[in-house]
Amino acid sequence: MDRILRRLVTTDPSPNHNNACQLHEDHTGQWLIDSPEYANWKFGSSRFLWLHGIPGAGKTVLHSFIAEDMRKLCEQIEGSACAFYYCYFGRNQDETNHFLRWVIHELCRSIGGIPEVVRNNFASRSDESRWTLVSILETVAKYFSCIYITIDALDESANREQILGLLRTMIANPVLGHIHLLATSRKEIDIERALLPLFVGLSLSNPYVDEDIRTYVKGHLLEDSKFFRWPESLKTETEAALVKGAKGM
Fold it and tell me: How far from each other are the two terminal CA atoms of the chain, in whole angstroms?
């Protein structure tokens, strides 16, 4: 089993995830949990949520928070599974097949075994084209009643029209109708056009984020000894200026 699972993985996004988790600040991200868009994606009819924001808005750290939220959720719901993936410009590669292989790998681990179609394909080194991988994903997905797949930084995949086409295929495929997709990226015109009208969009520049930033700033002003002697009026002015100047970052 381990040998086949190792063959499946051509890009392991775990280091990206672990690094992003370490950068996450406690008490941030609650704005997303409270948003109706996210709740409808988790528990409602929305199948594709696109989170977009400017560079530096914290999309990757937020994605790590979401991936952990999905892990906890799936531990509570029988028959559910989740998988995360991080695109990264430093790899300089089309992430599409690597993403598919990683998702299949993670679902096999959730099953606790390797379905015959996976074993036969990867044991014999047969065709591993994109469409073969999609067919394998269809088979593996049938083991679950609900699957959450999150992918960070779509805009950082080389030839990103390929991965955008795959996401459209996944959403349109009735066999994969129980998969909920969430993606993050910059708000690029080609991504928006490629995914319309499949997604529900949520900008990281919104009042929810401003309140999250306000909570973070207020906490530091209260807890850091350097600010103990500041008058309350100065703390209030500083808080307002930092929230305004952050612009969702």
Answer: 43
The domain in which residue 213 lies consists of 207-249
Structure token pair of residue 46: 């929305």
Q: Is 158 exposed, middle or buried (0-12, 13-18, 19+ CB in 10 A)?
A: middle
The reply to whether 122 and 167 lie within a common domain is yes
Say whether both 103 and 180 belong to one domain: yes
Q: Which of 249, 248, 242, 5 is CA-nearest to residue 122? A: 5
Q: Examine the domain organization and report whether 48 and 138 are in the same domain.
A: yes
The pLDDT tens digits for 169-212 are 999 999 999 999 999 999 999 999 999 889 999 988 766 666 66
DSSP classification of residue 112: T
Degrees, nearest 5: CA angle 149-183-148: 15
Higher-confidence residue: 107 or 227? 107
The tokens describing 157, both together, are 């995949």
Q: Is the dihedral of CA 39, 192, 62, 84 positive or negative?
A: positive
Strands 48-52 and 179-185: parallel
Do both 173 and 240 map to the same domain? no
Domain count, the chain: 2
Cα 174 from chain centroid (whole Å):
22
Judgement on whether residues 211 and 200 belong to the same structural domain of the protein: no
Rounded to two decimals, the pTM is 0.85
